[in-house]
Design brief:
The complex is a heterodimer. Chain A is of the alpha/beta class. Chain A has ten helices and nine strands. Chain A has helices spanning 42-49, 70-73, 91-101, 106-119, 135-147, 165-180, 192-198, 216-220, 227-234, 239-244; strands at residues 2-13, 16-27, 31-36, 57-62, 76-79, 153-157, 184-189, 201-206, 209-215. Chain B has one domain. Chain B has eleven helices and no strands. In chain B, helix 5 runs antiparallel to helix 11 (230-257). The chains are: A alpha/beta, B mainly alpha.
Amino acid sequence: MAVIQLESVVKSFGSVKAVNDLSFEVGGGEITGFLGANGAGKTTAIKMLLGFIRPDSGRVLVKGRDPQLAETRRLIGFMPETAHYYPYLKVHELLNLYGGLCGMSKAEIAVRFSELIVKVGLTGAENRQLKTFSKGMLQRVGIAQALLHDPAVYILDEPFTGLDPLARIQFRDLLLAEKKAGKTILFSSHELSEAELICDNVVILKEGRAVWSGTTAEVAGDGTQNLERVFLRMLGVAHEEKEAL
Amino acid sequence: MKIALCQIRALIKLSLLELYRRKDIVVVLILGAVLLLPLSFVTPFGMSGAGIYFNEIALVMVWLFSILIALGVSSRIFPHEFEKRTIYALLAKPASRSVVLIGRYLGALTAAISALCIFYAAYTLLCGCKQGVWLSEVLLQAFILHVGLIAIIVALGIMGSLIMTSSANVTLTLLIVFGMLFFGGRLPALAATQSLFAKTILYTANVVAPHVEFFDMRQRLVHEWSAVSWLVCAAVMAYAVLYSAAVLLLADFFLRRKRF
């Protein structure tokens, strides 16, 4: 059964069609990469999946429910593209805030906090204000807050941005472990290699439309192509052109 | 309901932490010192009624600083959330926009009231040392009504921040607050002498604008007049609650339609 569903979704901002008849599904326990060039409509689609904005037409459902409802968002863990959090808070204060917003008790937050701080590699930094954190560390905080209330669905906007190679590997392993635990993950990215490594499915967007979607096995085909080639082909950039660049 | 209260409590804590960590409290303490120190060093040299003037100056400063703090805290909450994009992580949690608004409003109100407590403590200390008057019923009423005024200003600051730029919001709110403080009580009399068009505008302003003058107990404090009836106090506070609720309803309307 599809956990995330977008059916013929259209969203315009003035005369600009950010999302144009977009349809795709993400099945339970799968990792799906949501790829596209800048301005392809990935973030707009994610905003609709989180209920920040309503589609002009079409349907957006998470576990069969409207994400505009607060109860639906209880099922979602979201990590925003730019990891900006309240700079004057310490990590545990930030997670207390988000835990409180998720309706978690102090005891629940404390237990989850001690697990997550190890999981995302922030041990020792719990009592530092976020303004002293590097971009990579803020990304880790972003991951921790997304995982905090143990949601069934993760929606991650450019999660690999700002992570050093070691952190990337750790984060990749973390996503695979979450998948094993039955979580459904949708992430947008420009990192084609990362997507190829961990995704079960890939959706490629161009001008607000899904121009290609399929499994990573389908991407590999007969072994002569990779995700980068498929991506460039779908975006209308010939391989030779790319080589010329 | 329990979850909504938990969410609101988390947001109130956020506002307080921001106030204290961002060193805003240092500004409050400096303003408190500005209020207290110069006046406490001045001695009237037996000038008759000089104490009244010091008292009046101190109260003007309490009013000015508290309004500036309330407006400063409230008017920057949502612009900062939008600018720093922290609003995304906040709204992605299972909290409705109305709960976020109420939580942020109560947080700003708590922060502004904590600053007000410091100002009133400084003022009470000043009055106690200079005039031997420590606590009085009028002072208690003045403080309570001041809280009512702050509740309205914080609501106006938050609503304004959702529909206009920060500078426009602060300027317009200050104009409304001080305009109503000085002329609010005279609007009906003024309207009665005007042409139909001006009369309509003035009557509308009389109904729509916040009657800041209702909350002004400064003259009673300065001249040591008797306290007003607690029933009147309750009525003015009810006005503050209703007015703030109406402004917050409008803010909720704008926040729901806000595109991020």
